[in-house]
Design brief:
This protein is an alpha/beta fold and 347 residues long. Helix content is 23%, strand content 27%. The protein contains ten helices and 19 strands. The longest helix has 14 residues, at 297-310. Bound molecules: NADP nicotinamide-adenine-dinucleotide phosphate and zinc ion (2 copies). One zinc ion binds at residues 41, 43, 63, 89, 159. Residues 41, 43, 63, 89, 159 line the site of one zinc ion.
Amino acid sequence: MAQVRSYAALSAGAPLVPFTFDRREPGTLDVEIAISHAGICHSDIHQAREEWGPAIFPMVPGHEIVGRVTRVGTGVSKFKIGDLAGVGVFVDSCRSCENCEAGLEQYCLGGMTGTYNTYEKDGTTIVQGGYSSGIVLNEHYALHIPESLNIEGVAPLLCAGITLYSPLRHWNAGPGMQVAIIGLGGLGHMGVKFAHAMGAEVTVLSHSAGKEKDALAMGADHFVDTSDTAFKKALSKKFDLILNTVSADLNINTYLGLLKLHGTLVVIGLPGKPYSVDAGSLLNQRRSLAGSAIGGIAEIEEMFAFCAKHGITSEVEMITADQINVAYDRAVASDVRYRFVIDTTTL
Ligand code: NAP
Ligand code: ZN
Ligand code: ZN
C-alpha cells in the first residue's frame, strides 16, 4: 500500500486539514497517478458541508484530477508510465448495464462509484478523492490528456468542462441557436467557452455585474445582470436552450419564461433544495425542463479532442493546500475567477 498526503474534512462543515491515508496497490488493470493538480468543484463544498444529505467522513474531496502515471498493472493497455492522465467524477461503475455499455457510465443502472464520499464495491473501504498526492483506479475510468493544453487549466475540464459540454452536445448547440448560461462560475464559464466554440449565440445571465468583461472575453455575445429584474421582460421567449449552473436556490419559473417555443431549460446546479415549478411556465410555449449529469468516458475523450482543437481550458486561480478553506468561502460568495485549482505538491 502507498501512503498519500491529502486534505480532508473530518466531519460535516469542518475546515479541511492535512490527512494521510493508504491507497491500494495497483491491481492488474489499475493505474497509479501522481496527482499534480486538483480543481475545487462546488460539489466538493456541498458534500464536505453535508448539503446533500448524510456524507462519509473523513472525506478527501476532489474530482477534477490531473497527474502523471507512475505505475501500471500487468494487464493495463491504455496507459504507460509517464502519461499525462486525468480522473473525473467517477472511478468505477458496473461495466455491464445498458448505460455503461453505451458509454454513459455516469448513468450506470447500478450506480456509478463516485471519486469520493462513497464506498468501494467491498462496502467498507472509503473512496477518497483528488485533494491528495496520488490515486489508484481501473484504467477505463482514467483519461488521456492532450499534452498541448495549458496544464493548469486542464483539471476543471474533468467535471466543470464535461458537465457543460455534454448537454450542449445533447441539445445540439450550434449556429443559429440562442443559448443562455445562468451563473458564471466554474461550470458556467466552461459553458460559455464551449457554446461559443460550437457556434451558438451565447448570453450570460449573472447576478455579479463585475463579471461582464470576463464573460465577453470568454466568448459571450451578451451579458445580463440579473440583479436588475428588467431582464425578465426584455428576454422573454428568447432562448432555445438555457443551462442553469447556479449552486444556490433560484426561482426557476423566471428562467422558464425566457424559453422560446420548444425551448429547454437544463438543470445542472444542485442546490440541494427542490425547485417549485409553475405548470403554466411549462405549458406556455411547450417548454421542457430537463437535467444533465457530467458525461461518460467516451464523451470526455471527445471533449478533450474538442479542447485541443479549439485551445480551450479553464480560467483558473492556482492555490496552495493551506488556502483550500478560504477558497471554499470565496466560491460560496460567487468570488471565483473562475475555478480554484490546488497545486497538490503543496499538500
Ligand atoms: P461555482 O463555481 O460556485 O459557480 C456557481 C455560480 O452560481 C456562481 O459563480 C454565481 O454566478 C451563481 N450563484 C451562486 N449563488 C447564487 C445566488 N444566490 N443567486 C444567483 N446566482 C448565484 O459552482 P460550480 O462548481 O460551477 O457548480 C455549480 C453547481 O453545479 C453546484 O451546485 C454543483 O454542485 C453543481 N454541479 C453539477 C454537476 C452535474 O453533473 N449536474 C456537476 C458539477 C457540479 P454569478 O456570480 O455569475 O451569478
Ligand atoms: Zn464537480
Ligand atoms: Zn452500469
